[in-house]
Structures are given as C-alpha cells and as structure tokens.
Amino acid sequence: MAFGPKGCSLKHQIEVYHNLAQGKAVIDYSFHGVIQHVNKDILNELEEIINYGIPSFKFYLTYGYKVENDEALAVLKKLKELGGITTVHCENHEIINYLREDYLAKGLVAPIYHSKSRPEEAEGEAVNRMINVAAVAENAPLYIVHLSTALGLQYIKSAKERGQDNIFAETCPQYLVLDEEQYKLPNNGGLKFIMSPPLREKNNKEALWKGIKDGDIQVIATDHCPFNFNKEKQLGKDDFTKCPNGAPGVETRIGIIFSEGVSKKRISLNKFVEITSTNPAKLFGLYPKKGTIAVGSDGDLVIFDPYKKVTITKDMLHENVDYTPYEGIKLVGYPEIIMARGEIIARNNEFIGQKGYGKFIKRNKIELI
Ligand SMILES: [Zn+2]
Q1: How far is ligand 1, taken at its centre, from the CA of residue 28, in Å?
Q2: pLDDT at position 283, please?
Q3: Oxidoreductase: is it a keyword of this entry (predicted)?
C-alpha cells in the first residue's frame, strides 16, 4: 500500500516504495496505489501508473484521507475505463466518529470499545453504498477489502442477485478464526487485536466461510500491518483510540487457511488454491505469470505436508514483531518447502532465501473472474 504524505502524487508514492523494497525483498512484489485525495491531477495520473504496471488502487471511506461519494464515483469510472480495479476500505466514518466520541465521553476506553465503536452496520452501510456507486459507474469493478461481517456479505449477495456482476470481496484469516472475545483478554491483551475493521461476534465466521464456499468471496488476504505489543500497541493502554490499528498475519495465512479450511473440510483443496492464489493473480493482473502451475509460469510453489501438526507460537514465526494474534492455535497441515521462481527459499520453517532475490513485477490490466 503505497501511502504518501498528504497531497503528494501517486508517482511520488510509488518511487518511495520502490526505494524501500529495492535490494531487500526475498520474493516478488508489487504495490497497490493508495488514493488519499481525488482531483484532476490524480485522475489524470492513473493511466500512466496502470501502463507502468500497477492496475490496482485502494481508497478509504474513513480516516483523515477518506474519499467522498462523488470522488469514489469518479475513481471507479476512470479505473473501469482504463482496465484497473478499485479496492475500497468500507466503514462508515460518521457512525464510527460519533460512537468513539460517545464512548470516550463516558470513560469507556478498554479495547472492547474499539469493536463496539465500529459496529457491523458501519461496514454493511459502506459496502452497500460502494456497490451502488459502482453500479452507477457503469458496473465498474469493485473489490471490497477485508470484509468482516455477514451483513456486508448479504449486501454483496443481494447485488449479485440483481445482476450486478464485477463485485469482488476479500476476507482475512483473523475474521475467519478469531472473534470479539479476544478484546476482553486480561492485561490489555485485547490491544493485540485492535485492527480495522475489528474482530466481530462469533456468528460472522461461519457466514464468511459460507461466502467463500459459495463463491461470493473470492480472495483470502491478510491486511498484514504489525505493531509491537510491548511498544506501539501500549499507546492504547488507557484509551483504545490511541492504539495503532493493525496486526501481523502474512506468515500465518497459508497454514491457517489450509488447516481451518481444507483439514476441517470447510472448503476443498481446489477452492483453497483458488482463493489464496489463482483468483488474486487474475484480479490483480499477475495471471498466468503467477497463480497457476503451467509451462512458462513462474515456479512459485508451496509444498505441504497435509498431516503435519503445528502449534502456532510467536517464536516459530519470522515476522518482525513481538507477538502473533494466533498464539496457541493448533493446525493440521503446514508448508514444508516454499519455492520462488524455482529456487527453494524456505524448508521446514527455516528461511534459506536471499535478500534482494525478489523482483518488482509489472502487472497487466485486470482479468475479471
Ligand atoms: Zn483497509
């Protein structure tokens, strides 16, 4: 997510991110453009960025850089025209602001009020709003990131029933295996789970699994955004609104989804490959270089032991952060060998790849699925 300082051009942001990755990445990578404000210059820049190899952009309906409905409409229309895809963080800004202030005024500052101040309806409303804006934008492709609620999913389903295709949704492991109870852990343990959207009530989890099975959710990603529990997260110890939002999850995604999805028979092995690899490769313009095993495609392979038993702990992981939200979770099935472009980069949980091996991938225009 190529964020930049307020008011900067998309090109500037991407240059900065190139510098951050240069010589360091161990696997291939790309960037999503982040649209933090909308004006003529930004809209005119989109074509050049897409032609350069970045066809996906994210904007937010909340936070200080939130995009308004008319701006969203302009971006959706333009990206459709250019063969790009609009991805949106869907939460209703005003509902959240009102509730945050209300809880703060009442002295309700514990981590659980993070989720209470970002209710399911705040996501549902924003999802439904964007679906309608995308319909007005001549059925522009819309990709809803980190969907966390059954309510949002219902709006997606009902739009599809009305015949609006080109709506795609992503969820993440945290919304499939964790829930709101985590915010009540002792010693402010709930701060570890402060992310947006927040963890939800239990009943949402099976609804999201069903959405995956039925094909209404096409991708499981991570929203990986770590902060140390003993450092940055402690900013929220007396006030949840001061806690940085985000949690780690990039290393645990594949193992958790295999175990909770395939081993527990919620989804088929084919569906697992589709939602973790093939679908995102197609939607984000990487297919068939990535996302398939075929002559001419990159040899990016994960070889699993489907019966291996693993208990997730912070110590077994390589993420650069002092905790994992999945501590103690027991998995059946875990990756044994990981290959990037034909080279083995990890074996039996040991990283043996090389810094700088990863290349920036120029992506194509998107392929609707
Ligand atoms: Zn987001």
Answers
A1: 22
A2: 97
A3: no
Q: Given this model, what pLDDT does residue 369 score?
A: 84
User: Where are the domains positioned within the chain?
Assistant: 10-298
Q: How many angstroms separate the alpha carbon of residue 88 from the centre of ligand 1?
A: 7
Q: Please give the distance, rounded to the nearest whole angstrom, from the Cα atom of residue 316 to the centre of ligand 1.
A: 27
**What does pTM read for this prediction?**
0.97
Cα 223 to ligand 1 centroid, rounded to whole Å: 7
Q: Please tell me the distance between residue 160's alpha carbon and the centre of ligand 1 in angstroms.
A: 23
Kindly give the distance from the C-alpha atom of residue 56 to the centroid of ligand 1, in angstroms, as a whole number: 14
Angle at CA of residue 312, ends 310 and 315, nearest 5°? 115
Give the E-state strand segments of 276-342 in sequence order. 301-311, 330-340
Q: Which residues have C-beta within 8 Å of that of residue 2, sequence separation ≥ 6?
A: 10, 13, 14, 16, 17, 31, 32, 33, 34
CATH architecture of 10-298: Alpha-Beta Barrel (3.20)
Which protein residues have a CB closer than 5 Å to ligand 1 (ion)? 89
Separation between Cα atoms, residue 37 and residue 39, nearest integer Å: 7
Residue 240 has pLDDT above 90, yes or no: yes
